[in-house]
């Protein structure tokens, strides 16, 4: 036990002993006071510490955040068994050992069943409060942790996405300048045309590189313009075929993906008039395919691998659909997923910081309201029981407020943890997911 818990239990024990000594003890002597203090400390520390140890043990073995339902069931069973044993032990020590009011046989004969039952209920209320307090503390930690994790994930994903997009600008520029450098020596007139066309293409690169997705139609038009540049340099050594379905033109792909893949085809394959390189761009089963006949070129130095790796990483941040690569002895093919709609954010399904914090704050407020109701119940009901036993011990009217309010507390708890709005939201989400799977969305 922590020092703070020991101090709290000591003050509770002292306050309880003073109350019982002045309210119920007929002979107010030092000896009776010490016995009352001893009995109060016994009840407080055995019941309080016992329930505290059980709660700490369950927190380590079955945390609320990892197994809520399992933890709730184990908690209910364990506190019922433990408190029954602890109460019978404390009452035995009180009435048989300290006060010597009855013998052991009389105690277990059933004479003290009502007192034991009443004390068990008080112990269960205390235990419920301790478990509720533990759950509340873990909920706060989990809520704070989730918000922090969401912030870190969002910042990390956005930074990664921006880094990948920033690769495109210099990558395209350097490759284009290399082509231009080759043309200046081979064909100066073509180099001039290439320079003019490159300025138009580079404008598209600057416009599109900051976008997450572009339409297939825009990407195809840009790719055709880029292919004209390649034809300027390679002439009959390279041929291009485009066959994309009209229904796919209004859908989306990652920007500059085609240009990067076309670059790869030229970079990794040789092309001559006698053995031309044929590059096909076509749609197939919700994918945009770029295929070329395999004429592998010997590389003077190892490729940096920016193009294809960049596309794969950007798709992984935007969707769960994968980029597929097929390679055989005759051809090399890359399949890019065609997306039906633009995702609002990256695929890790994170909310914005404000929404995540607002949702966590609302949830904490609901749970705090429930535990405020529960704590009030745990304080007021014992007071009403004591008041009833003092004023009218022959008529037990405390049952009615205890039962009525208890039903209200249970209903409140179920609305917060089981069948409230959170349960409705989960069910709605489950039904929508099933419908999406059924209709193949």
TrEMBL record:
Keywords: Kinase, Membrane, Transferase, Transmembrane, Transmembrane helix. The keyword GTP-binding does not apply. GO terms for molecular function: phosphorelay sensor kinase activity. Residues 159-237 form the Signal transduction histidine kinase internal region domain. Residues 358-432 form the 2TM domain. The chain crosses the membrane at residues 7-26, 32-53, 73-94, 114-135, 370-391, 397-419. One of its GO terms (cellular component) is membrane. The keyword Transferase applies. Coiled coil: none annotated. This is Histidine kinase. It comes from Chryseobacterium aquaticum.
